Amino acid sequence: MDIHQLTPFLSVSPQITAADVGVAASKGFKAIICNRPEKESQDQPDLDEIREAAERHGLSWHYQPVVSGQITDADVVRFRELMNELKGPVLAFCRTGTRCSTLWALAEAPHLDADAILNTTAAAGYDLSAQRERIEQLSATTPTSPRAISKRHDVLIIGGGAAGQAVTGSLLKRRPDLDVAIIEPAQEHYYQPGWTLVGGGVFDRKQTLRAMSDVMPHQVKWYQAAAASFQPEQQLVVLEDGEQLGYRILIVAPGLTLDWDAIPGLRETLGRNGVTSNYRFDLAPYTWELVQTTRQGKALFTQPPMPIKCAGAPQKAMYLACDHWQRSGTLKDLDVEFCTAGAALFGVADYVPALMEYIDQYDINLSYQNTLIAVDGEQRLARFKVTHADGTTEEVEKSFDMLHVCPPQRAPRFISNSPLADAAGWVELNPETLQHSRYGDIFGLGDAGNTPNAKTAAAIRKQAPVVAENVLMVLDGKPPRAIYDGYGSCPLTVERGKIVLAEFGYGGKLLPSFPTWLVEGTRPSRLSWLLKEKMLPWIYWNAMLKGREWLARPEILHHRPAEHEAAAACDFADRK
């Protein structure tokens, strides 16, 4: 556990698990306060399990959820009341510990000097200098002072995942002395394309994980906090602790949110009762376990409505499972069904014939326009909304022995509730330049954008150089001229040792990277499997994240009408 003591009475911590509660009890804590709202992120442990563990160990449990970056006076009052009510020592936790520390700092403002409060939190590892003005305003004796000037960077990046790290690598490759900062609360970085192979028994999940500190470039300033809101007119981003960061250019790349709670009953049964998903690091090994142990009965594989990241992943899990069952001789005893909310097997028709050959080979039942809406893990029942050809719908229950779920997906709330979002909640971007449609000093890439491309790591590999080129052009007072063609790639693992390498751009245009005599993308290929298994992980860690742009150089338009160039330059100049 990562415990930070503020006072002998109160300590704070980043997110804890049920297993950590016993450690807390052994250290003498008598009460636990949770300041993190339930279901705030997809990787958040179940609060009921933590509460039950607290009760088992004799610790009192208190739930006071506080929204990141939006601590109200009422929140402060309630926290102060808890401190007065509880018998300590007390352990408070949230995502990083910042909200807990901020609550304490504001609650103590009427009693302690601002310097004493800020020195205490700093000693515990939390810099709350951005809260000085509010602390002093709450103090009964200390006059207020002007708010400290926000830190400002040439380029501020939201997100340290594949998109954020890739564009950082491309920027620093072009301009090594550029002032770049990344806002990212996570301590781990994942190679998510590898989770399909973990679920297929090819990779160990440890191969897909590295510490965030190992992939974060040493030249950048890393803010280990979450972004809470945007003030684009003032060129400011507000962090969860209230600190404001300024920028000349903002790059938004936070990824998307897997909405497990959109399907009632799903979260509660994940990882047991035969319910799994390769979309989570901790569950992919369970997929492989189920594939090995399921020898008869019903196996369901689901796909939700678009958009989702890696639209082929739900099928990949199914094909690898069927390949194993066929090789082991058990496929004949299994009823395999693919339940997709869509009306087609794959969005680009050129790749469907090859996929249909495997559908027939594995004797898979295709159920189009079947949307998973509820799961009863104990009874092993899945409920679907089925849309018929005439537009009518009905709900149908299907039993299962194994259920692989691809969850519904959406933009993060701090994006969808922000001025940067379009009507559907995604970052509103120009599909070619990846510049924000309304704010010329903001760019975006990756899964949170509204561009109509496949949401894949391969798309990010092509987007990152485009954004890097355009950001530097705008910083230099020039209009963006690098163009993204919508490239995305989906290596469809149709069997162990063969892949249909789907590569396409906007409008479903085929964009193969290799000549057809080497790789015929619309047909299964052993060379494509070698690319997926051996080459792409190495390329991800050692090229894509480090600004090496093999087969990813962007197209630069060298001619543009003078009036457009002047208008773009003036727009940015007005905002500098």
Automatic annotation (TrEMBL):
What GO terms are given for molecular function? FAD binding; hydrolase activity; quinone binding; sulfide:quinone oxidoreductase activity
Q: Give start-end of the signal peptide.
A: none
Tell me the InterPro entries matching this sequence.
Answer: BLH_phosphatase-like, FAD/NAD-bd_sf, Prot-tyrosine_phosphatase-like, Sulphide_quinone_reductase
Protein name (record):
TIGR01244 family phosphatase
Say which domain of life the source belongs to.
Answer: Bacteria
Q: Does the keyword Oxidoreductase apply?
A: yes
Keywords, ordered alphabetically = FAD, Flavoprotein, Oxidoreductase, Quinone, Transit peptide
Q: Where is the Beta-lactamase hydrolase-like protein phosphatase-like domain?
A: 2-109
Cite the source lineage.
Bacteria, Pseudomonadati, Pseudomonadota, Gammaproteobacteria, Oceanospirillales
One GO biological-process annotation of the entry reads:
sulfide oxidation, using sulfide:quinone oxidoreductase
Task: Provide the cofactor list for this protein.
Answer: FAD
